[in-house]
Amino acid sequence: MLSRHLPLNASWQDLHSIFNDKQLSSFFEGLEKKYDVIDESDFFSSLVNMSKAGKMPFHRWIRYREGYSGELVKEILLRYPIDSKKEYVMDPMCGSGSSLVAGKQLSIDVLGLDVNAYAVLATNVKCSSYSSTDLKKIQSYINDFKFIKDSNIDHTLSFCDLEKYFPANNLSVVCNIHNWILSTIEDKKYRDFFLLSLFAILEDCSDRKKDGNGLATRPSPVSDPISRMSEQLDMMFSDISIQQYYNVKCIALDHSALELSQAAVKMTAITDKSLGSIIFSPPYANSFDYFESYKLELIFGGYTTSKKIKEDKLRLIRNYRISKPIAAKNKLDCVENICEEILLRIPEKEAETGVKDSRTRLVPNMLRGYFDDMATVISQAYNSLNHNGMMHIVVDQSAYVGVPIPTDLILAHIAENVGFNVAGIINCRRANTSGQQLKKYPYLKSLLRESIVSLCKK
């Protein structure tokens, strides 16, 4: 097989022999040179994930797999500063709030958007300002909570969708904690603080953990949810107790990035400032199901149900597999050509395994939808940004049946077509793919990367 004989440090030009479309590798090699891709992996490799940030105040509150470090945001704003008296920053896919926490610490107004209501809650609780009166009140509730007793009332019926995910006793206890919060704490600010603490421990209290493309089964490491909740509350309280006061507006909204321009108008009305910079990490083109991974928190929080969750996905950027009877063509030739390459590889894989690969058969439509949605976001960003405003996209490359998807190059190409100038692409670290793919297509190990695409509106 040709792919086995490619150099381990393969470039796009080296892939010329494995594509049926012989111009495809040349096209991406041309973009690689045109956009001045530089390697800063020594500096950025630890900033494009939560490996270090996950131990820092505020960022450590919840386990959010797809986050990046707040220090990454600070570095970007150091290199490309805004006028904080006249401008604000937006993160249209804010996740657990790294951009907003960093912006707050820099005294910059930041607007965050997300369709994951759990992420919106986490971001807003992290970015709230807590006065000395607030701290005293929260501490009082924490002290009261430590004397909570198990209720004789069975609240688990309200969460029958989740019974199979928890040990029976743990589910009963977390349901009673939930009821205590709702019946005891009237002030929304304090209630949200406690609800976030509870939602943050659900994974530990369950028989599941976030893994792969959803939830994997494993025994719960927690036998006493009340003690685990107390630990979580103490940790979160210690962080808000030492925070400085920042007179800024850092707000997260339950709002789709596909309607970014509407949100920008709202933030301008709130702050009387214009949009100076956009920093975000979109879902990667890797079929990861964000709603499935956060199903426990979303259902327990009352944000959705097991039946409604599929409908809720329609607000996401289409990075998930979805079956469609007719394949809609993407406007970009390079996207269509990649889809064709994948389709041509599938019969070969199925012949080797003797099994129909239904999942990979859905990938071409996923890619078409993904890049179409990202084009919408990029276009709305261009229309909403100030002149000379910047947009920075942190994104991962992926691969299917040995066909690499150069997401950063394609997004830069889309942005250039919209009107942006591509200021550069920074290679931050190598990207991962499945062990099966790496074994069969070893060139992917050096080719795939996670990067920052920087764009300027002129």
Descriptive labels:
458 residues, alpha/beta, Rossmann fold
What global shape is seen? globular
In the CATH scheme, what's the topology name of the largest domain? Rossmann fold
Quaternary arrangement of the chains shown? single chain
Strand content: 5-15%
CATH class assignment of the largest domain = Alpha Beta
CATH superfamily of the largest domain: Vaccinia Virus protein VP39
| First-to-last CA distance | 46 Å
Protein name: Modification methylase
GO biological process, one term: methylation
GO molecular function, one term: methyltransferase activity
Keywords: Methyltransferase, Transferase
Can you characterise this structure?
- This is Modification methylase.
- It comes from Salmonella enterica subsp. indica serovar 6,14,25:z10:1,(2),7 str. 1121.
- The chain has 458 residues and is α/β, with parallel strands linked by helices.
- It is built from 19 helices and twelve strands.
- It has helices spanning 24-34, 41-44, 70-79, 98-105, 117-127, 132-145, 168-184, 188-205, 225-241, 260-271, 290-293, 295-300, 309-312, 333-353, 358-361, 363-384, 407-418, 435-440, 444-447, and strands spanning 37-39, 87-91, 110-114, 208-211, 214-217, 250-254, 274-280, 390-396, 398-400, 403-405, 420-430, 449-457.
- An eight-stranded mixed sheet has the order 1-11-12-8-7-2-3-6, with helices on both faces.
- Strand 9 and strand 10 form a beta hairpin.
- The longest helix has 22 residues, at 363-384.
- The protein starts with 23 loop residues before the first helix and ends with a strand.
- The model has no long low-confidence stretch (mean pLDDT 90).
